[in-house]
Amino acid sequence: MEKRVYFRARLFPYLLVAPQIIVTLVFFIWPAAQALKLSVMRENPFGGNTRFVGMQNFERLFNDPIYLDSFQTTILFSVATTFSGLIIALLLALAADRIIKGATGYRTFLIWPYAVAPAVAGALWVFLFDPTIGIITYAMALFGYDWNHKLNGNEAMTLVVIAATWKQISYNFLFFVAGLQAIPRSLLEAAAIDGAGPLRRFWTVTFPLLSPTTFFLLVVNVVYAFFDTFGIIDAVTKGGPAGATNILVYKVYSDGFVGLDLGGSAAQSVILMAIVIGLTVVQFRFIERKVSY
Amino acid sequence: MVERRPYLTFLSHAFLVLGVAVVAFPIYVTVIAMTHGPQALLQVPIPLLPGDQLWNNLNEVLFVGRSTSGTPPTWLMMVNSLVMAIGITVGKIVISILSAFAIVYFRFPFRMLFFWMIFITLMLPVEVRILPTFEVVAGLNLLNSYTGLILPLIASATATFLFRQVFMTIPDELMEAARIDGASAMRFLVDVVVPMSRTNIAALFVILFIFGWNQYLWPLLVTTESDFYTVVMGIQRMLRVGESVPEWNIIMTTTFLAMIPPVVVVIAMQGLFVKGLIDAEK
Question: Which one of A38, A203, A222, B81 has the fewest beta carbons within 10 angstroms of its own beta carbon?
């Protein structure tokens, strides 16, 4: 789609795009190019000079069990967060879609966690699950379960998944509600007249018609779990214990700033960029504008 | 509703109430923790009913810095957060309107190149280029400054695309009429295009304000002087006290204060918020 008529000017449009382009060049493209360059270099530990090492940094990474572990941790974390977030939100949206009175009231009380910063969400949940004074820890102790996410890796993972899911439910809920409202009532009524019960209607009518929304949310949630959960990890576990919650984004940060391994950190950045580019392509190719709101 | 099934309706309500309760539970405990002194929060179990220390906690959090974590008084961190959030929001909206206007209403060499450059920023979240971006900002002497907090975050592909789409729907006749009346491009932008996009601007403002307020990693990197700490990263500093016991009453009060502005914005402007979310993803 293009406009039929334009303003005529030679220099003015460049002035208009200049601020955006300068910020993009200086703070996005230049650093990304630096990361690309550093990822094929290695700094000489005894002198300032760097030399070209080709794919060595990447080879080193993929032979590093800690990095591979971090990859696995990230996948586990994003699958768990995405699925729990989508399923809970879908159930809530189906419930909200069914009732007529009070649906907006429920919506108000369900959407606000979206506004809570990931690090703040982390602080909220860490207080509830604190090994000494957490109220949920206390409740679990009554049932004989001894919770300590500072020592137990699985429990640490569970805790960050809970915090990340809690924050993301509102987003998924809003989009599922919109998706459900777009499904024509006549289809559901026809199915009901043919004798399909609520469960059957869900699987044969609602769920297939909701699939564009679901697919869209799937991608958004994976991106969220990969990149936007940094604050949760940092506030709750700092990647520990023993790397049990050390997701890729967190590892780039800790290797770069704490470990000061420039080449390795840059190679990790490049791999993450490839992942974002892949996800963005999926989002734009397969979703396009087919999602119906 | 397709048919009457009272038990299903009841189940729906029950599930929603349960959902609301689970979502709200952490806030309830936070509010309770705000009203107790440090001693009460060392007991097991911690109290689940309000205490009488609310004013003390608020007073101490807002006006006294913490020596254990090195954070300044929270009012200062809230001001920093506000400056950063507003700066990012206004910056993103202004430069996105300008570039979308150029791309839609002008034809010039490299137009598509610029368009794709802006598009690429979508694929480069700050998390994946942390170290080199930090070096650029350090090289420009922008560490520990509001400019350093705001400027690197104001490029926005999403906002530019959104405004491009909005401008596309503005009828060409309006522009022709403006030109016949002798209005300049700038005048047309200010008097026609911006007023016609005001709902989109407002919706975007809500979303971007939340985005800006909740920034975490970036302030963590570029601020080393506590005078520039934002409240969201201040909480992290308070949680990291090493071997000593965290001051939970202080932490939870700060946490609550940090949530208020974005949550109030979402709840008070629900309609715009929902519109903004959906617009931003189109």
Answer: A203
